[in-house]
Amino acid sequence: MPAESSRARSMNETRERILNVALDVLGQDPDAGMADIASAAGVVRRTVYGHFPSRLDLIRTLTEQAVTEMTTVLTDVTAAAKPADAAWVEFIARLWPVAHRYRVLLALRRGEYGTAIHALLGPFDERLTNLVQQGQDTDVFAKHLPPPILSQLAYSTIFAIADSDLSNGIRSPRAATITSLLMLGVPEARAIALVDDQG
Amino acid sequence: MPAESSRARSMNETRERILNVALDVLGQDPDAGMADIASAAGVVRRTVYGHFPSRLDLIRTLTEQAVTEMTTVLTDVTAAAKPADAAWVEFIARLWPVAHRYRVLLALRRGEYGTAIHALLGPFDERLTNLVQQGQDTDVFAKHLPPPILSQLAYSTIFAIADSDLSNGIRSPRAATITSLLMLGVPEARAIALVDDQG
DNA sequence: TCTTCATTGCACACCAGTGTGCAATCTACT
DNA sequence: AGTAGATTGCACACTGGTGTGCAATGAAGA
Fold first, then answer.
1. Per CA to C1' distance, which residue is closest to D27?
2. What does pTM read for this prediction?
3. Which nucleotide is closest to the Cα of A7 by its C1'?
4. CATH (one of 1.10.3470, 1.10.10, 2.60.40, 1.10.150) for B1-53
């Protein structure tokens, strides 16, 4: 890789800082404006527009990052050709930090940029649907819902749990795994859930 | 009941029409403006403001209606003192048309009026949490998540299924019941789900 | 030193939505 | 006929956010 000049490095740092801060700020208020993001990043609004021509560009970049990371995880997991339930468990385990980081996308998917985000998420959704489909075909997952809806529901739930996770970050990934397995209709999940005493 | 004058009746009709149409319009776009609602109701924007002083008033009214109906159902169901799983099944069955009608509230809960809606929904959420709590205490529901989160998740899922229900309105209530039972950790739901062949 | 360029601090235009004011109109009721 | 009141049509002010233009600043790089 070509060594970056100090200037270019500084610019990249600013850019990354904006992106990171944007995830935070939008996470607390999905309707936060460019001004909020800018000031939280210790920068002027005008500067943000220097890096991202429009608000949509910013959000699209965030979404693309999320999609890339999530797709990588899903591809890795499905490459092993394990049974669908085992694949799912591994998927959630590795997806968790990503889902937690990009949990705001769940809210952002509704509203102004919904269609743009949905489009970017499309290929990922498709792959995930395939996994659920395969699980149903091999009688590992229940068939109470068609694969497209069931997969959406399951991974929306993951994000929802990640979103309600403003305090206990430790037990949540386990809870997310169990909850999703349960709603996918994996009977063994019940036994696991029973061991997991919370109250 | 005192017989309404034709004028008063006409006004009420207009008001009801606005409310009904608002559910539709907001259902398709939660960010729809007063102008969209007005024209969809065959009325001028100014008239809407005659019935509802502000956008918040309109949405609050819708929310109050929803809360009232949902609370009625929940109160009825829990009054019988059945086991939690049986109560839940009956609850969803009777909740379904209400959830389907007010499905937009799921999206509306985020965004500008989120706190107002959340406040109105508070008492209902509390009652629902109690039901889930009771289910966990009697080992009918699993304990993978604390009652407040689990109840939120379960009934959000109901609304989500109702929201994705733009075509097949028949099988959905059954699917919603099964899905929620599964995520609540009711093992018998699996058997029911297996009978319900979709593919 | 001189140049380049990211950043800054304003300015501005623009847009979309909200909520209000008021005269005009049309219709039900008296 | 006459009145009350719901509705209309238009005007307006206000808000809050977006995106742009441009000169000034300051620091890295030649």
1. A7
2. 0.91
3. D28
4. 1.10.10
